[in-house]
Amino acid sequence: MSSELLHLAGVNKRFGGLVVLNDVTFGVSPGEILGLVGSNGSGKTTTINLISGMYRADAGSIVFDGHSINRLPMFRRARLGINRTFQVPKVFRDMTVRENIEVAAHFGRAHEADVDAILADVDLTGNADKLAGSLTVNQQKQLDLGRALATNPKLLLVDEIGAGLNPAELGAIAALLQKLAARGIALIVVEHLLDFLNRITERVIVLGAGRMLFQGSLAQASHDPEVVAAFIGG
Ligand SMILES: Nc1ncnc2c1ncn2[C@@H]1O[C@H](COP(=O)(O)OP(=O)(O)O)[C@@H](O)[C@H]1O
Ligand SMILES: [Mg+2]
Protein backbone atom coordinates (compact mmCIF):
# COMPACT_ATOMS: atom_id res chain seq x y z
CA MET A 1 0.00 0.00 0.00
CA SER A 2 1.46 3.32 -1.02
CA SER A 3 0.29 5.14 2.13
CA GLU A 4 2.42 2.83 4.26
CA LEU A 5 5.48 4.26 5.97
CA LEU A 6 6.99 0.85 6.69
CA HIS A 7 6.48 -2.40 4.83
CA LEU A 8 7.95 -5.82 5.61
CA ALA A 9 7.58 -8.53 2.98
CA GLY A 10 8.51 -12.18 3.45
CA VAL A 11 10.90 -11.48 6.29
CA ASN A 12 12.80 -14.44 7.75
CA LYS A 13 15.28 -14.52 10.62
CA ARG A 14 17.33 -17.42 11.95
CA PHE A 15 19.66 -17.60 14.93
CA GLY A 16 21.92 -20.54 14.14
CA GLY A 17 19.56 -23.40 13.36
CA LEU A 18 16.58 -21.76 15.04
CA VAL A 19 14.04 -20.12 12.72
CA VAL A 20 12.75 -17.19 14.77
CA LEU A 21 10.69 -15.36 12.12
CA ASN A 22 9.17 -16.99 9.07
CA ASP A 23 7.55 -15.11 6.17
CA VAL A 24 6.48 -12.05 8.13
CA THR A 25 4.62 -9.53 5.96
CA PHE A 26 2.86 -6.39 7.18
CA GLY A 27 2.90 -2.62 7.00
CA VAL A 28 2.15 0.39 9.15
CA SER A 29 0.97 3.84 8.11
CA PRO A 30 1.69 7.30 9.51
CA GLY A 31 -0.49 8.02 12.54
CA GLU A 32 -1.37 4.36 13.05
CA ILE A 33 -0.78 2.35 16.22
CA LEU A 34 -0.22 -1.28 15.30
CA GLY A 35 -0.17 -3.84 18.12
CA LEU A 36 2.18 -6.80 18.10
CA VAL A 37 1.23 -9.66 20.41
CA GLY A 38 2.22 -13.26 20.99
CA SER A 39 3.51 -15.52 23.73
CA ASN A 40 7.08 -15.31 25.06
CA GLY A 41 9.62 -16.23 22.42
CA SER A 42 7.19 -15.76 19.51
CA GLY A 43 9.48 -13.20 17.83
CA LYS A 44 8.08 -9.81 18.83
CA THR A 45 11.33 -8.21 20.02
CA THR A 46 13.20 -9.77 17.10
CA THR A 47 10.74 -8.04 14.74
CA ILE A 48 11.59 -4.72 16.42
CA ASN A 49 15.30 -5.51 16.25
CA LEU A 50 15.05 -6.18 12.50
CA ILE A 51 13.21 -2.92 11.86
CA SER A 52 15.48 -0.78 14.06
CA GLY A 53 18.62 -2.38 12.63
CA MET A 54 20.04 -4.26 15.58
CA TYR A 55 19.86 -7.36 13.36
CA ARG A 56 19.42 -7.92 9.63
CA ALA A 57 16.76 -10.13 8.11
CA ASP A 58 18.10 -13.26 6.37
CA ALA A 59 15.46 -13.00 3.65
CA GLY A 60 12.69 -10.65 2.61
CA SER A 61 12.55 -6.89 2.31
CA ILE A 62 12.04 -4.02 4.71
CA VAL A 63 11.10 -0.71 3.08
CA PHE A 64 10.82 2.48 5.10
CA ASP A 65 9.73 5.80 3.63
CA GLY A 66 10.80 4.72 0.14
CA HIS A 67 14.19 3.33 1.24
CA SER A 68 15.16 -0.32 1.28
CA ILE A 69 16.69 -0.41 4.75
CA ASN A 70 17.59 -4.02 5.46
CA ARG A 71 21.29 -3.41 4.89
CA LEU A 72 21.49 -0.07 6.66
CA PRO A 73 23.15 0.13 10.06
CA MET A 74 21.07 1.24 13.03
CA PHE A 75 22.34 4.85 13.08
CA ARG A 76 21.35 5.37 9.42
CA ARG A 77 17.86 4.05 10.15
CA ALA A 78 17.64 6.40 13.15
CA ARG A 79 18.51 9.30 10.86
CA LEU A 80 15.74 8.26 8.49
CA GLY A 81 13.34 8.40 11.43
CA ILE A 82 13.16 4.99 13.10
CA ASN A 83 13.62 4.72 16.83
CA ARG A 84 12.60 2.37 19.62
CA THR A 85 12.28 1.83 23.34
CA PHE A 86 13.64 -1.22 25.13
CA GLN A 87 11.93 -3.93 27.15
CA VAL A 88 14.52 -3.12 29.81
CA PRO A 89 15.05 0.66 29.57
CA LYS A 90 18.53 1.82 28.62
CA VAL A 91 19.40 5.22 30.03
CA PHE A 92 22.69 6.91 30.86
CA ARG A 93 22.52 6.50 34.63
CA ASP A 94 25.23 9.05 35.46
CA MET A 95 23.65 11.84 33.42
CA THR A 96 20.65 13.89 34.42
CA VAL A 97 17.26 13.27 32.87
CA ARG A 98 17.60 16.45 30.80
CA GLU A 99 21.10 15.50 29.60
CA ASN A 100 19.83 12.08 28.53
CA ILE A 101 17.28 13.74 26.26
CA GLU A 102 19.77 16.33 24.97
CA VAL A 103 22.25 13.61 24.00
CA ALA A 104 19.60 11.52 22.27
CA ALA A 105 18.53 14.53 20.19
CA HIS A 106 21.82 14.32 18.27
CA PHE A 107 21.16 10.82 16.95
CA GLY A 108 17.98 11.10 14.94
CA ARG A 109 16.48 13.24 12.19
CA ALA A 110 18.01 16.71 12.10
CA HIS A 111 15.84 19.13 14.08
CA GLU A 112 15.78 21.45 17.07
CA ALA A 113 14.66 19.22 19.94
CA ASP A 114 12.25 20.98 22.30
CA VAL A 115 13.63 19.32 25.42
CA ASP A 116 11.15 20.99 27.76
CA ALA A 117 8.20 19.82 25.65
CA ILE A 118 9.56 16.26 25.62
CA LEU A 119 10.09 16.33 29.41
CA ALA A 120 6.47 17.44 29.79
CA ASP A 121 5.23 14.76 27.35
CA VAL A 122 6.86 11.97 29.33
CA ASP A 123 5.90 13.52 32.69
CA LEU A 124 9.48 14.09 33.89
CA THR A 125 9.57 17.89 34.13
CA GLY A 126 9.92 17.74 37.91
CA ASN A 127 12.77 15.25 37.66
CA ALA A 128 14.74 16.97 34.89
CA ASP A 129 17.83 17.62 37.01
CA LYS A 130 17.94 14.26 38.78
CA LEU A 131 20.43 11.60 37.77
CA ALA A 132 18.74 9.05 35.52
CA GLY A 133 20.12 6.25 37.70
CA SER A 134 18.08 7.55 40.64
CA LEU A 135 14.75 7.18 38.81
CA THR A 136 12.30 4.35 39.44
CA VAL A 137 12.07 1.70 36.73
CA ASN A 138 8.79 3.22 35.53
CA GLN A 139 10.37 6.68 35.30
CA GLN A 140 13.30 5.14 33.40
CA LYS A 141 10.76 3.75 30.91
CA GLN A 142 9.33 7.24 30.53
CA LEU A 143 12.85 8.59 29.99
CA ASP A 144 13.62 5.86 27.46
CA LEU A 145 10.51 6.97 25.57
CA GLY A 146 11.59 10.60 25.88
CA ARG A 147 15.01 9.75 24.43
CA ALA A 148 13.36 8.06 21.47
CA LEU A 149 11.11 11.09 20.96
CA ALA A 150 14.12 13.41 21.04
CA THR A 151 15.30 11.85 17.76
CA ASN A 152 12.14 13.14 16.06
CA PRO A 153 11.00 9.70 14.85
CA LYS A 154 8.52 9.00 12.07
CA LEU A 155 8.25 5.42 13.33
CA LEU A 156 8.42 4.55 17.01
CA LEU A 157 8.82 0.95 18.17
CA VAL A 158 7.65 0.41 21.75
CA ASP A 159 8.61 -2.88 23.46
CA GLU A 160 6.49 -3.85 26.49
CA ILE A 161 6.30 -0.43 28.07
CA GLY A 162 3.21 -1.38 30.08
CA ALA A 163 4.70 -4.18 32.19
CA GLY A 164 4.71 -3.25 35.87
CA LEU A 165 2.75 -0.01 35.50
CA ASN A 166 -0.31 0.70 37.67
CA PRO A 167 -3.65 1.61 36.05
CA ALA A 168 -3.06 5.37 36.32
CA GLU A 169 0.43 5.06 34.79
CA LEU A 170 -0.98 2.85 32.02
CA GLY A 171 -3.67 5.40 31.31
CA ALA A 172 -1.05 8.16 31.03
CA ILE A 173 1.11 6.10 28.64
CA ALA A 174 -1.92 5.17 26.52
CA ALA A 175 -2.86 8.84 26.23
CA LEU A 176 0.70 9.79 25.31
CA LEU A 177 0.98 7.10 22.61
CA GLN A 178 -2.33 8.29 21.14
CA LYS A 179 -1.07 11.87 21.18
CA LEU A 180 2.06 10.81 19.28
CA ALA A 181 -0.04 8.98 16.69
CA ALA A 182 -2.23 12.08 16.32
CA ARG A 183 0.96 13.98 15.40
CA GLY A 184 1.45 11.53 12.53
CA ILE A 185 4.01 9.22 14.11
CA ALA A 186 3.54 5.54 13.22
CA LEU A 187 3.81 3.25 16.23
CA ILE A 188 4.36 -0.47 16.62
CA VAL A 189 3.51 -1.44 20.18
CA VAL A 190 4.56 -4.84 21.56
CA GLU A 191 2.42 -5.60 24.57
CA HIS A 192 1.10 -8.43 26.74
CA LEU A 193 -1.53 -6.21 28.38
CA LEU A 194 -4.42 -6.71 25.99
CA ASP A 195 -6.84 -4.27 27.66
CA PHE A 196 -4.22 -1.56 27.30
CA LEU A 197 -3.61 -2.51 23.68
CA ASN A 198 -7.32 -2.69 22.92
CA ARG A 199 -7.67 0.93 24.03
CA ILE A 200 -5.07 2.25 21.60
CA THR A 201 -5.12 -0.05 18.54
CA GLU A 202 -7.53 -0.86 15.74
CA ARG A 203 -5.29 -3.56 14.30
CA VAL A 204 -2.96 -6.10 15.85
CA ILE A 205 -0.69 -8.81 14.50
CA VAL A 206 -0.49 -12.06 16.42
CA LEU A 207 2.80 -13.97 16.19
CA GLY A 208 3.11 -17.61 17.12
CA ALA A 209 6.52 -19.30 16.96
CA GLY A 210 7.72 -16.74 14.42
CA ARG A 211 4.73 -16.94 12.10
CA MET A 212 1.91 -14.47 11.61
CA LEU A 213 -1.21 -16.20 12.92
CA PHE A 214 -3.62 -13.31 12.61
CA GLN A 215 -4.03 -9.71 11.51
CA GLY A 216 -7.09 -7.66 12.50
CA SER A 217 -8.75 -6.19 15.57
CA LEU A 218 -8.09 -7.65 19.00
CA ALA A 219 -11.80 -8.40 19.35
CA GLN A 220 -11.64 -10.52 16.17
CA ALA A 221 -8.41 -12.15 17.34
CA SER A 222 -10.09 -13.48 20.45
CA HIS A 223 -12.50 -15.45 18.20
CA ASP A 224 -9.81 -16.86 15.91
CA PRO A 225 -9.30 -20.60 16.61
CA GLU A 226 -5.60 -20.53 15.67
CA VAL A 227 -4.93 -17.57 17.96
CA VAL A 228 -6.88 -19.12 20.81
CA ALA A 229 -5.03 -22.42 20.38
CA ALA A 230 -1.63 -20.68 20.35
CA PHE A 231 -2.39 -18.78 23.55
CA ILE A 232 -3.91 -21.71 25.38
CA GLY A 233 -1.15 -23.98 24.12
CA GLY A 234 1.68 -21.71 25.18
N1 LIG B 1 20.38 -12.78 19.74
C1 LIG B 1 19.75 -13.96 19.78
N2 LIG B 1 20.44 -15.11 19.64
C2 LIG B 1 19.82 -16.32 19.67
N3 LIG B 1 18.49 -16.47 19.83
C3 LIG B 1 17.75 -15.35 19.98
C4 LIG B 1 18.33 -14.05 19.96
N4 LIG B 1 17.35 -13.13 20.14
C5 LIG B 1 16.20 -13.84 20.25
N5 LIG B 1 16.43 -15.17 20.16
C6 LIG B 1 15.44 -16.25 20.21
O1 LIG B 1 14.43 -15.90 19.28
C7 LIG B 1 13.15 -16.27 19.77
C8 LIG B 1 12.27 -15.05 19.77
O2 LIG B 1 12.75 -14.13 20.74
P1 LIG B 1 12.09 -12.71 20.95
O3 LIG B 1 11.94 -12.04 19.65
O4 LIG B 1 12.88 -12.01 22.00
O5 LIG B 1 10.65 -13.11 21.53
P2 LIG B 1 9.51 -12.21 22.22
O6 LIG B 1 9.96 -10.80 22.24
O7 LIG B 1 8.30 -12.45 21.41
O8 LIG B 1 9.35 -12.79 23.61
C9 LIG B 1 13.37 -16.90 21.14
O9 LIG B 1 13.43 -18.29 20.98
C10 LIG B 1 14.71 -16.31 21.55
O10 LIG B 1 15.37 -17.19 22.44
MG1 LIG C 1 10.34 -9.46 23.83
Task: Report on the architecture of this protein.
With 234 residues, the chain is of the alpha/beta class. The protein has two domains: 1-81 and 154-234, P-loop containing nucleotide triphosphate hydrolases (Rossmann fold); 85-153, no CATH class. It is 35% helix and 25% strand. It has nine helices and ten strands. It has helices at residues 44-52, 74-80, 97-104, 115-121, 137-150, 167-182, 194-200, 218-221, 225-233, and strands spanning 6-15, 18-28, 33-37, 59-64, 67-68, 82-84, 155-159, 186-190, 203-208, 211-216. The strands form two sheets. The protein has a six-stranded mixed beta sheet, sandwiched between helices. The chain is globular, with a radius of gyration of 17 Å. The structure holds adenosine-5'-diphosphate (ADP) and magnesium ion. Residues 44-45, 87 line the site of magnesium ion (MG).
Summarize the structure.
This protein is α/β, with parallel strands linked by helices and 234 residues long. Helix content is 35%, strand content 25%.
Main sheet: strand order: 6-7-8-3-9-10
Order of helices and strands: EEEHEEHEHHHEHEHEEHH
The major beta sheet can be summarized as:
6 strands, mixed
**Percent helix among the residues?**
25-40%
CATH topology of the largest domain: Rossmann fold
Which ligands are bound?
adenosine-5'-diphosphate, magnesium ion
Envelope shape: globular
Gyration radius, rounded: 17 Å
- Beta strand count: 10
CATH-derived architecture of the largest domain: 3-Layer(aba) Sandwich
**SS summary, helix count:** 9
Low-pLDDT windows of residues: none
- Portion of residues in beta strands equals 25-35%
**Average pLDDT, to the nearest integer?**
94
- What is the rounded distance between the termini? 33 Å
* Overall CATH class of the largest domain: Alpha Beta
The H-level CATH homologous superfamily of the largest domain, spelled out, is P-loop containing nucleotide triphosphate hydrolases
**Structural class per helix/strand content?**
alpha/beta
Number of domains: 2
